[in-house]
C-alpha cells in the first residue's frame, strides 16, 4: 500500500522581541521566505512551525503536531556552545576527525566541503581544529538558522568562525559547478551528513526531527555521493547511523565508528594521506 504524501507544515515568522531592529529583521525574513509574519501575542492557531526572531537569536518552534516536539526550547544553531576542548568533547569528535584524515601530531588540515551543513555542528568541529570549511545548506530556513548561529559565534570565537564560508543552495548543484575546476581549486574532502533513515532504532535528536519537519528526507542522498566522488580530490566522508546501510554506490573503504554513529570513508586519492 503506498504511503500517503507528506504534508507540508504551515510556517510563519514570529516577532518575539520589542527591539525595532529585530522587528525589521523578522519582516525581512518573512518577505524573503514568502511566509506571513505575526507578533508573538497574535500567533494564529493554525500555525504548525514558527521561525521566531527573538532579541538574541533565530529559533524554530513547533507549535502543533508531534507532542514530543511541541514546546520546550526552540531549535537554533549554537555553535560556540559546542564542546571542542575538553576530554569528552575531543573524544566525541575523534571518529569525525580521523575520517577526514586528521591525525595527532600531523599538521595536515584538509579543505572540506560540508555539502549538507544543517545547523553547522560538524563544520564547527572541523573549523575548530584548523580546517577551512565551505558549508552548503539548501533549505532556506535552516540556512538562516546557521547564518544566525555563525554570526553569533563570530563574537565568541572569531578565529574558528572565520574558517567557515557559508554558501546557500543545493549541495549537488554546488559540487557540479566546481567539479570541472583544477584539483587545487576543489576541496580535499567532501563531507556528507544526509538525513538519517526513518524508522531506525538510533535515537534522533529533537533538533534533527524539527529540521526534518521543514526539509523532509534527503531522497537524493545517493546523488550526493555520486557528485561528491566527482568533486573531492582526496576522500568523501559520509555520516550514518551505526547500523544503517551505506549509501548506494561503491562500498566505503574504511569506517570510523562512534557509539551510535559511524563515518564511511570513500578514497578518491591516497597521494596525500593514508586512510
Integer average pLDDT: 88
- Element string (H = helix, E = strand): EHEEEHEHEHHEHEHHEEE
The appropriate CATH architecture of the largest domain is 3-Layer(aba) Sandwich
Q: By helix and strand content, what is the structural category?
A: alpha/beta
Give the count of structural domains: 2
Instruction: Supply Rg.
Output: 19 Å
Q: Which CATH first-tier class of the largest domain would you pick?
A: Alpha Beta
Number of strands: 11
Number of helices, where a helix is a run of at least 4 consecutive DSSP H or I residues: 8
Strand-residue proportion:
15-25%
Alpha carbon gap, first and last residue: 44 Å
For the largest beta-sheet, the strand count, sense and barrel status come to: 7 strands, mixed
Amino acid at each position: 500500500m503506498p504511503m500517503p504524501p507528506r504534508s507540508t507544515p504551515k510556517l510563519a515568522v514570529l516577532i518575539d522581541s520589542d527591539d525595532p531592529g529585530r522587528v525589521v529583521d523578522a519582516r525581512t525574513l518573512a518577505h524573503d521566505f514568502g511566509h506571513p509574519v505575526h507578533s508573538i501575542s497574535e500567533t494564529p492557531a493554525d500555525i504548525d512551525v514558527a521561525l521566531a526572531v527573538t532579541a538574541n537569536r533565530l529559533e524554530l518552534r513547533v507549535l502543533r503536531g508531534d507532542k514530543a516536539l511541541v514546546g520546550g526550547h526552540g531549535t537554533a544553531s549554537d555553535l560556540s556552545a559546542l564542546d571542542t576542548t575538553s576530554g569528552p568533547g575531543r573524544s566525541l569528535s575523534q571518529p569525525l576527525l580521523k575520517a577526514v584524515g586528521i591525525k595527532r601530531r600531523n599538521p595536515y588540515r584538509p579543505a572540506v566541503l560540508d555539502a549538507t551543513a544543517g545547523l553547522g555542528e560538524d563544520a564547527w568541529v572541523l573549523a575548530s581544529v584548523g580546517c577551512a570549511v565551505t558549508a552548503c545548506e539548501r533549505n532556506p530556513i535552516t540556512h538562516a538558522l546557521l547564518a544566525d548561529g555563525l554570526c553569533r559565534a563570530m563574537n565568541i570565537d572569531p578565529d574558528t568562525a572565520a574558517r567557515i564560508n557559508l554558501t546557500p543552495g543545493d549541495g549537488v548543484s554546488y559540487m557540479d559547478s566546481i567539479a570541472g575546476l583544477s584539483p587545487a581549486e576543489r576541496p580535499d574532502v567532501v563531507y556528507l551528513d544526509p538525513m538519517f533513515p526513518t524508522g531506525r532504532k538510533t535515537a534522533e535528536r529533537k533538533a534533527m526531527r524539527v529540521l526534518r519537519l521543514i526539509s523532509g528526507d534527503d531522497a537524493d542522498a545517493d546523488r550526493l555521493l555520486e557528485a561528491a566522488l566527482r568533486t573531492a580530490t582526496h576522500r568523501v566522508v559520509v555520516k550514518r547511523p551505526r547500523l544503517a546501510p551505506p549509501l548506494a554506490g561503491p562500498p566505503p573503504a574504511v569506517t570510523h565508528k562512534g557509539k551510535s554513529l559511524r563515518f564511511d570513508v570513500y578514497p578518491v586519492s591516497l597521494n596525500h594521506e593514508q586512510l
